[in-house]
Design goal:
hydrolase, Pdz3 Domain, alpha+beta
Amino acid sequence: MKSIIISIIMFLFLILIHEFGHFIVAKKSGIKVNEFAIGMGPKIFSKQKGETLYSINLLPIGGYCAMEGEDDTSDDERSFDKAPAYKRFLTILAGPLINLIFAAFIFTFVVFNTGIASNSIGGFTENSPAKESLEINDEIIGIAGIKVNEFSDISEILTTYYKTNSKDKEVSVRVKRNGDIIEKKINPKFENDMPLLGITPKPRDVSLIEAIGLGIKQVFQMIGMLFSILKNLFTGKLSFNALSGPVGVVKEMGRQVNLGLMNILFFLAYISVNLGFFNLLPIPALDGSKLFTSLYEMITKKKINKKLEERVTIVGFVLLLSLILIVTIKDIINLF
């Protein structure tokens, strides 16, 4: 129960900073904010302060920053719709952007405290095929004649090598040992058709500057991965069952809580990237659709028909809620 409560709090925190991004830029842009809410459904707490109602709602599955005239027509001069296109664009962009910035910050914190995997061997797994040929502290510099720059290159090179070679064929591994270059032949073991040498990396400390660069790089790598997931979903290579909703996310967060602080922080940053990325997609009812219409107006100086935009947003919202409901039901079934 404790881990579930912590997970819900962390999930709502990501929603909070996302909506706060919209909120603070809207305020700075002179756009009227009617309500700032965390959670959905019936209110369990609310407080009016100035023109804005601050609310905490019962269902911990989202939140919103309700701006005057954002999704309907309004005659208020400070409505979202009457603001200049660039202010609307920046107000909507701020939500996803703050999620991505937060993720980069957390990734930086994690890598600065844990270090990164070096090319040097820190240990061997059980029944390691490399244990008899290699030694701890050996620095792997090449596999199958291909240079190894990072520890992650090892898996990629091996996978590529065994796409064109039989599984019983040995692969050459070049290592640096006490200043000498040594080449060994190793026959990897296979788990789920994935070739493994059975080694674990020796961690390497990083400077703060390097950690910042790696934190930002991790965000872009995850965005690339999410694009690949979307592609695989549309092409049928990835099953719908691979999707998770709020229940699935909270469940996984609960599992990560029990694995230690750095694990949960890394997963929190991963979810923050997801939240930022998917809200940037030009899908009706998500931030990306409003970014698209604002950008269109900035370029063409023409406004999209408000009534049409409202109808498309309503349809998109219904479809989005339906998808969340279906995925949530699936996640609840998987709990038992």
